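Reopening this ticket.

The earlier resolution said the output was attached, but the attachment link was broken on my side. Pasting everything inline this time so it's all in one place.
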Amino acid sequence: MRYFKTLVFSLVVLFFISWNNEPKPIRILLVGDSTTIGNVPREINPEGLHLEHMIEQLAKGEGLPDLNVINAGKGGETAKRLLGSKHYKTAIAPVKNVDYIFLRMGINDWFRCKDLKAEYPLQMKALIDQLRMDHPKAIIYLCTITSFMKPNECKEVNDLIYQIAKDEKSQVLDIFTPYNNYLIANGRNSLSVRQCYLSHIPEKYHEWLKPYTYYRKGWGNKPSGYVVKVNDMSLDPILGHIKQWYYDRHPNTTGYNLIANETVKFLAERLR
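Inline output:
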């Protein structure tokens, strides 16, 4: 009987030792703007596999360690606005045990900075310093922006990102090059959502467009109103003649899948 009790006790101890020694998932924090969080795909398909989920799934397929990816992107963010914001204090600073941070900022900075070359590097460095204070064990990677503006304007931002990374002794995940190459091969609008005010669309289509129609509260110089939102190119043959149909440059799910795949390839080279 004593032997049996000893055996049971030993098995329980071994179970808890093995349970406590199981490797924990690698925690990755995504920090960025609307091209990181992906508002339209989430609104249209809330239960879908979004950027953070695709990174986790693709990593499994590559035989990488388990990942726990937290997407803390927020629409409209700049490096300056994010630093010290409520979003930073509630969604970024409190995240525990972060191993890697992917920081992609620059699109809104390009629109908002009066002197991009003077302001953006200083603001990014201040943000990086704060991230290092809040997540001292995390490795921070900078990311180039998606092909959102004209090529020369994207290059201006990305050149600064590479210089900031060099100054901060960080590495760069280049999203822009594969993203832009895909656009060249498949069409300028192949990776973008479609978001168009209903008022720009002929009334004869309004009835059957109701499942695609959402009320959007205005911001900046954009008025409030009903907007048709589509996450792919499926309605291009019908509505593609409307020039406003292609105004939005935010990634669709195909675009986010490309970003996820490039992120996993980048990680695989380092985790292996």
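Reporter confirms the inline version is readable. Residues 2-21 form the longest helix (20 residues). Strands lie at 26-32, 67-71, 100-104, 139-143, 171-173, 194-197, 213-216, 225-230.
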